[in-house]
Write a structure and sequence with these properties.
CATH topology of the largest domain: TIM Barrel
Largest sheet: 8 strands, mixed
Bound molecules: iron/sulfur cluster
Structural class: alpha/beta
CATH superfamily of the largest domain: Aldolase class I
CATH architecture of the largest domain: Alpha-Beta Barrel
Length: 312
Amino acid sequence: MKYLFGPVPSRRLGISLGVDLVPHKVCSLNCVYCEVGRTTLLTTERKEYIPISEVLQELNEYLLQKPELDYITFSGQGEPTLNSGMGKVIDFIKTDYPQYKIAVITNGTLFWDEKVRQEVRNADVILPSLDAVSDLMFYKINRPAKGLDNSRIIEGLSELRKEFSGKIFLEIFLVPSLNDTEEEIGLLREAVQKINPDLIQLNTLDRPGTEAFVNAVSSEKMLQIKKMFEPLPVEIIAKAEIRKTIPGYKDKIEEFILETIKRRPCTEQDLIKILNIHPNELNKYLSGMINTGKVYSERLERGIFFKYCHKD
Ligand code: SF4
């Protein structure tokens, strides 16, 4: 499969089959905390970055086997809404395989465009992110493509809320000394009230991001920030344990990863090549193994290395 990955146990969506709609790393943002590396094509141009007919063919072949899934998720190695054929894929699943729920994980930057809102209308859940309200923070954290305007993005998200009947879980990724200040949280709270999502999900780094200066916000600070959003519906998702597992399958992949890095520490790219695994799939396993203390990461000259935690 070229464009499908997993199914992977996901923190927020249970057992999820991933669908890639853009190649690595086409995105409208270049976030300092991104786990899939620097954006190589920073754009807001929508087009068929990946041929939709091929995605539909793969999905058809896969879903004919009636796999057990909690969600089919559009996420991947960049921003899925940049693919102008996304609506066709969503509609295909809903018509031919209505038993499956659809999730769209997006940076939320394109919902000011009515066409994009139309295309996601048949999804079951949309998980957009919003990390900054002030222009200064938007540029510092998200480093947007030319022409993106944050107030327009927030307008777009609140339009989406009015038109979309499914659930919206809004993620806020917190970066110490940038958007975790009282002032920024105050602005975010106002924006969130306007957007009115079903749930606010606070996240922070749980493994090294694109830029070395980005660290995790402490657990105490995360709790304080959560209180600042209350009584709005808010939860912390950082460092949550993977809730669901795929018996056998998950253990096998974990075992492979552990056996490989036990012999020698590897970068993400090394592991992708050795295990022939999709970056997002690998990410989920690495995050889970870091959280459970089986693996740790270290930034060295050639990049971020994953190492085995010897118990002794
Ligand atoms: S929007 Fe997502 S994929 Fe794009 S740079 Fe930010 S974190 Fe990475």
